[in-house]
Amino acid sequence: MVSPAIRVAPSAANRALNLLRTVQYSHPPNCPCHKNPSHHHNHKQTSSLLNHVKRRMSTPIDPSREKEYAFEMAASSIRFGPGATKEVGMDFTNLGAKRVCIVTDSNVAKLDAMKQAVEGLTREGIEFTIFDKVRTEPKDSSIKEAIAFAKPYKPDAFLAVGGGSVIDTAKLMNLYTVFPEADFLDFVNAPLGKGLPVDRPLLPLVAVPTTAGTGSETTGTAIFDLVSKKAKTGIAHRALKPTLGICDPLNTRTMPSAVHAASGLDVLCHSLESWTAIPYNERTPRPTNPINRPAYQGANPISDIFSLAALRSTVKYLPRAVHDPDDHEAQSEMLLAATLAGVGFGNAGVHLCHGMSYPISSQNPGYKHAGYQVDHPIIPHGVSVAVTAPAVFRFTAASNPDRHLAAAEAFGVDISNVKRESAGEVLGEAIAEFLVKLGDQPRGLKDLGFKAADLEGLVDGTIPQQRVLMLAPTLSRELEAERGELRGLLEQSLDY
């Protein structure tokens, strides 16, 4: 646990900047020319006159500037318990499935989770085929290979057994089996793809996670590397979410310590980012049809409950799960935390850590993580999101100091005498100390092999991630200013 005696002494310049940012975002001035329209969690209703001024009065109302007024809560059905995997065959019988495509990877294919799944389907007399070539951290080419396998088999249901890469791949196999005529980019998030809504139901998908990190068993999001653009992207729509997630703690006991750490860091950032995302009723544009309401909607009263609970559990149990392979209680609690965070971020969304993580992973200069048995360089997703976290939450704290202080308190910091303008420094330091104590973590982008000369490419790869950047508090909406802020965050993340 982080020492409760942490007191950070930022430089005079940083202290002044933090104070100015806190004043700007927490107490915006009444002058409509200077009032910050992106004020985070400012729930006071502005007058209709001020709203007119912000719309420049002389121009008609622009529907694209209309703020959201509602949020939706969507998550997969979840079954949690040791040994629950053996029920999966009965689940497919109950769903009326006759022909199942099992999706996994070459490592998980050898584990007991797959054995339990295969035996379950066999007992029920359900026909199945197995695709076991999922790529860890998928590329568009590996996704297309998987889709090409599924289409001619014409399954009536899918079963994913594995980590987030497996579950995400299964989601896209399901999508493009139901939409065989679609171009691959039709549903990919704009601006890299067309971002079309999914307007017909998909086939049943049961997800059995074998890692405790992505929460993919709860969400309608699937992520992959679009190689031609040198950036990760994906497809996000609530129709993609699994029909059922079977969270069996027995299935995570085979994870190496380094994989526990990397996947757990994804949980950490899922919870922190969704907890600090802009509120749902500050997001624009308001959808003209509910089918266009995005899966990532901004922080809301329901997602907040899941996100904060997941953060507290991760701080408590992740170090135990990493440091003691026989601590099955901690492993079980981390699987539950991953699922809780999945419900939270699957509806609220994530922002800067994830937005910058996608080019960090896809532009990997050659780093190969020791905990993953793969034949290619890999920066695990959890590592790529956590490496910028100290800088990110120093930056976003001015949007809502109280919320960032609550996050710091979850790390064990005594916040009773911390000034609100110091919230970012305190939370950033608490995150950095947590990462250091976890052990064997890269201490910034330099440890992943990146140099200062690489940062412009990382900025270029982050800019298209508008699906998540739009949820980032305090981030400028003017392109050049946004680029400058992202560059600054990446520079600060070179080492910590």
Automatic annotation (TrEMBL):
Membrane-spanning parts: none
Main location: mitochondrion
Annotated ranges, domain Alcohol dehydrogenase iron-type/glycerol dehydrogenase GldA: 76-249
Record keywords, A-Z: Mitochondrion, Oxidoreductase, Transit peptide
GO cellular component: mitochondrion
Catalysis performed (reactions): (S)-3-hydroxybutanoate + 2-oxoglutarate = (R)-2-hydroxyglutarate + acetoacetate; 4-hydroxybutanoate + 2-oxoglutarate = (R)-2-hydroxyglutarate + succinate semialdehyde
InterPro entries: ADH_Fe/GldA, ADH_Fe_C, Alcohol_dehydrogenase_Fe, HOT
A GO term, aspect molecular function: hydroxyacid-oxoacid transhydrogenase activity
EC number(s) recorded for this UniProt protein: 1.1.99.24
Pfam families: ADH_Fe_C (PF25137), Fe-ADH (PF00465)
Subcellular location: Mitochondrion
Domain Fe-containing alcohol dehydrogenase-like C-terminal: 298-470
Stated family: Belongs to the iron-containing alcohol dehydrogenase family. Hydroxyacid-oxoacid transhydrogenase subfamily.
Name recorded for this polypeptide: hydroxyacid-oxoacid transhydrogenase
Organism of origin: Penicillium roqueforti (strain FM164)
